[in-house]
Design brief:
Structural class: mainly beta
Number of helices: 0
Order of helices and strands: EEEEEEEEEEE
Strand content: over 45%
């Protein structure tokens, strides 16, 4: 069984920073893609950033230049460094991984940005 546990969310003022972490545990052979999604109340879940096992990254236009995704393969961990946070970044943030034909989600961590 595979578990994803996110941490690092919280309340921050606009302009501030947070760093999210997601640790993957359990029986897993390899992780191809690791990503962060977010879902604000009343909105659909959207991709924030993703990183492949080769290190290629992609970002939502709304976070480019402010957020950085990275991964530590030895620790099966993916990070999301969020700088210059805006009120509209407020959402629940979810970690997602793809391993072969399987896809796994974490339970989410809440990020609240006060204006």
């Amino acid at each position: 069984q595979v578990h994803l546990v996110e941490s690092g969310g919280g309340l921050v003022q606009a302009g501030g920073s947070l760093r999210l972490s997601c640790v993957v545990s359990g029986t897993i052979f390899s992780i191809n893609r690791m990503a962060w999604y977010r879902q604000a109340p009343g909105n659909e879940r959207e991709l924030v950033a993703a990183i492949t096992d080769g290190g290629a990254t992609n970002y939502a236009d709304s976070v480019k230049g402010r957020f950085t995704i990275s991964r530590d393969n030895a620790k099966n961990t993916v990070y999301l460094q969020m700088n210059s946070l805006k009120f509209e970044d407020t959402a629940d943030y979810y970690c997602n991984i793809v391993s072969g034909n399987s896809r796994y989600w974490g339970q989410g961590t809440q990020v609240t940005v006060s204006s």
